[in-house]
Amino acid sequence: MTRGMTIGILAVTVVAVVAIVLAVSGVFGGGAHKSAQGIADQTDALFDDLMQSDFDSAAFEKFGSGIIDLIPPEFIDSALEETGRTREELIQYMGSSLGGSMEYYASTPSSYTDMFTISIDVELGDRLDSYDIESINDALASSGCDGVVTEGYYLTGEVSVTFNEDYEGYSAGETESEDMGNIGVCAIKIGNSWYLWPGVY
User: Fold this and answer.
1) Among 7, 41, 46, 39, CA closest to 149
2) Which of 2, 32, 83, 129 is most enclosed, with most CB atoms within 10 A?
3) How many CB atoms lie under 10 A from the CB of residue 175?
4) Measured between alpha carbons, how far is 142 from 46 in angstroms, rounded to an integer?
5) Which stretches of 32-148 are DSSP H helices?
6) What are 1-29's pLDDT values in tens digits?
7) Which H helix or E strand runs over 125?
8) Which residue from 2, 1, 7, 34 is spatially nearest to 174, judged by alpha carbons?
């Protein structure tokens, strides 16, 4: 396997983690931040914790719980009313679903734990365009939410792999990075607060 193929496979695998995690956690909601950068920083911290974990169901549940705490609270209220579940039940369901969905992924990094360290750097990207803002506001209105999004930013990601020992042409201490582009979430402003919103690429 070539150097480029190795980092490419790792990057694609991490993107798959992001997509599945965010797809499952996309119906929840919770807290807010005072700035778009605060949302990006908190999302970055959640990914850091996940990538340093054992990728078990508890780790995915913790990650998902942190993500839902960043999404508009009215959205969680609507989801709970629609599903008839409690927040705890939804988080437990999400954790077990993620654990099962990512079982194939968990076995891969665990066998190479001593070989490399994976990290994801989340940053603010471009401003949301008018189409995405309108789509988000339509979704909020359909859920009975009163809030209106006035601005927002796409969140972008870069995955980095640092090798702890020589491996497939890489030297110990060497780091390779891959741009992930938009990671499927954005920071949105409702009133004076900033939240996370999933499903925007």
Assistant:
1) 39
2) 32
3) 13
4) 29
5) 36-51, 57-68, 73-83, 87-101, 103-110, 130-142
6) 555 545 555 555 555 555 545 544 443 34
7) strand 116-127
8) 7
